[in-house]
Amino acid sequence: MIAYLDFVTRISLDDKRRTFVAQGLTAGMRVLDVGCGTGDDVRSIAALVGDDGFVAGTDSSHAMIAAARARGVPKPAAFYTASAAQLPFEDASFDAARAERVLQHVADPSAALRELRRVVRPGGSLLLIDQDWDSLSVAGADRDVTRRILHAFADALANGTAGRDARAGLRAAGFPEVEIAPMISTPSLPIAHELILRPAIDAALARGVVDAIAARDWLAALLRAEAQGGFYCAVVVVAALGR
Predict the structure, then answer these.
(1) Whether the Cβ atoms of residue 132 and residue 80 lie closer than 8 Å to each other
(2) Which residues make Cβ contacts (< 8 Å) with residue 136, sequence separation at least 6?
(3) Per-residue pLDDT tens for 176-190?
(4) pTM of the prediction?
(5) Which helix (H) or strand (E) element contains residue 177?
(6) With 0-12 CB in 10 A as exposed, 13-18 as middle and 19+ as buried, what is 62?
(7) CA–CA separation, 175 vs 139, rounded Å?
(8) What is the C-alpha to C-alpha distance for residues 216 and 220, in angstroms, rounded to an integer?
(9) What are the pLDDT digits (tens) for 43-81?
(10) Which residues does 26 contact at the CB level (< 8 Å), separation at least 6?
(11) What is the layout of strands, in order, in the sheet containing 232-242?
């Protein structure tokens, strides 16, 4: 998982910077990053808010928090092991909060959103970024097998439609102003294999919707399609900003 997060960070640096600008992160602000992983975003935000600000990073994984601390804790930052639905902070503690690729792994996203709303001050903001995994499409192999594998992948997640549900979730949690920016991610085959295709095959095998031979043949067909210029992969990613 740490290798996966490092890979995603490397390929999304420019997009990440744009979200910092969209949320208006500036010197002196108090910012919360829920699901911080190894803390790359926390360290980047710490540079923006400076010594007069503060950044808290939380993750439900003790291993992730240990890795985050080992990689360095800037002066205006701290890391905590905590669930998104039970945050160790007072009401209205932060000017801004973020949760990127988090709610897709949360079985009760409404509870997590209510908790995030609790710790954001009046006038503050919450940024959500999540895929809508039901929108995932792949071309280059048998359609029936493709559907079975992709549906197994979406269904294996706690909340595979987190992206499409973000606007309604933010409003229900108490953010009356919500802006959404759906984006289409079209990864190349090597990136798609690392981030999507390999875990999709694992999910399909675990759920028994394909066997090992069908999974092998499916991936081989995608490799042939790539060689012939016919491979395609796309998924909708939704950035939702609640104020």
Answers:
(1) no
(2) 150, 153, 154, 196, 233, 234, 235
(3) 999 999 999 999 999
(4) 0.91
(5) none
(6) exposed
(7) 38
(8) 6
(9) 999 999 999 999 999 999 999 999 999 999 999 999 999
(10) 48, 49
(11) 77-81, 54-59, 30-34, 94-100, 120-139, 232-242, 178-185
